[in-house]
Amino acid sequence: MDSKALSFQMNLTLTAIIFISFVCSAKEFVAIKTVEGNLTIADLCVNGKTDTCAKMTFDQATSVCGKTLGFWTLKYTNFTVPKCNGPNCHTELNVTLPDIHAALDCQQNGTAAKCTCVLYQEKVPL
Fold first, then answer.
1. Total domains present in the chain
2. Is residue 22 part of a domain?
3. What pTM was estimated for this model as a whole?
């Protein structure tokens, strides 16, 4: 076998190993709780207006998601900068429990925004 063929096979093998490790290392999450609520906020991602969404506060976001999960008290640590995703204002929130996070989506509905917060837990492989 010449060195070019061997080099190609080694590169192909290395690429396959890297790809498999990347695919296998991706975390998978399952929804464990959904909370709905309203925020008194105007012009949230309406007619291209993104500034109200970007100015959503940490307190506003956590007020919708709730403070408990079963017998656990949730302490939110930080959140991503809220961004408009079409008509929805979206942000992700982290909590002190390492395998749990929340996703908040709000959409303007009259004078208030209707919000849905979904808590996710990392799926444990069997």
1. 1
2. no
3. 0.74
**What are 56's two structure tokens?**
């959503």
Q: State how far Cα 19 lies from the chain centre.
A: 24
Q: What is the pLDDT of residues 53-75, one digit of tens each?
A: 999 999 999 999 987 777 678 88
Range of the structural domain that residue 110 is part of: 28-122
Specify whether the CB–CB gap between 101 and 31 falls below 8 A: no
The token duo for 30 is 């399952």
Residue 3: pLDDT band by 50, 70, 90 thresholds? low
Decide if 9 is inside a domain. no
Other Cβ atoms less than 10 A from the Cβ of 101: the count is 20
- The set of residues, in sequence order, having a beta carbon less than 8 Å from that of 48 and lying 6+ positions away, is none
User: Chain centroid to CA 90: how far?
Assistant: 8
